[in-house]
Input
Amino acid sequence: MTKKLFTDFDKVSSKQWKQKIQADLKGADYNDTLIWKTNEGIDVKPFYHADEFDAPFKSIPSPEGWSICQTIFVYDVALSNKKAIKVLERGAESIQFIIPNKEVSITDLLENIDLETTTLFFELQFLDSEFVKQLSTIATKSSIQTDIIGNLAKTGNWFTNLQEDHQHFDAIVAQTKSFSVDVSLYQNAGATMVQQLGYAMAQTNEYLNHLENTENQALQIIFNVSVGTNYFFEIAKLRALRLLFTTLVQEYKLDATCHIFVTPTKRNKTIYDYNTNMLRTTTECMSAILGEADTVCNLAYDAIYHKDNEFGERIARNQLLILKSESYFDVVENASEGSYYIESLTNQLAEKALELFKDIEAKGGFLNQLKEGTIQRKIKESATKEQEQFDTGEIALLGTNKHPNKNDKMKDELELFPFVKTNIRKTLIPPIIEKRLAEKLEQERLKTEN
Output
């Protein structure tokens, strides 16, 4: 067959499509029936068409592939070293070590790990530029995730105080040529995607404003991002993040790279019917990959209520291995580029986030709005709205507020406390609190278990 099929048909415009849809609705209102209104203030249409776009799509830089990562909390150096070697043998391509204190021996931790081929991330739960200097000398190609403003937002306090924290920050950036921005905090606390992106840019801008002589300086900025199950929106969110980052660093004339480190959100995870968490994390990891994440670190299905265990971690790692090796998610670059729907979402999220960023800057910047409590208040408003949608069933979590299994018992399964912990202490600012949607319902259900 030499004749092309589509030459036999006339082109159909978006106007003609809409007229046909309206006729099929038989009097029902098009906007009320088919337009989906989101918490981000975006109206999602039933179809998207080429003639709705005035200009070619903006090209968004994409990474050269993505790596499978596993997080290891270092409570015992020898055991953590053995675990790292084992998970690398079983498919992990990078490791994120969470270091609780400066007594941890990095030399012992990294023994027999190939530092040339293994990408390492270090999240320090303390701030010490000398420790980072020693670490960087041993693991020269590692990435240190340093975010002093993120720590302030999460805990309500600096590590020490504003001045000392910034002195350590300056020394760490000078040593590592990198810093990180914890965007996941905002997602897990209930912020909208527009807020997540706007706050990410405003926080990044605080750092770039602070750093001296940044012009022409090479920097790597790591964005730690959480993604939920709003599949196409999460793809667009990551693409919008790269677009906004490129715009921001161009203003500073920076030679800067953006590394997006993605983990599934905890906000929609549940303790009842916990196997559905595997379905949630699978689609979330797919969004991360198609959104062009650099590193994807899956969340074990039982992470919110079980201590680290080999089975949960193996399943989480295998989910990514299946996506990479059996579903061929590693062979297509920028797979979502050119999709009218995703391109439209990307542009709208970026534009709304840019407006929010400009508003924050006009009102004194991100730190100032944190100190005033504006950021916390806005996130709480968004989280409250989302919680109401869950409570009324508008947001459904299968097995929890929709089709729950009444015979499911969890009281004896909780190795970890899966709810917000109340710890009364003095803070400089109100901290941003991460909270899962199902917490209240789960607590009530636990009380009634026999």
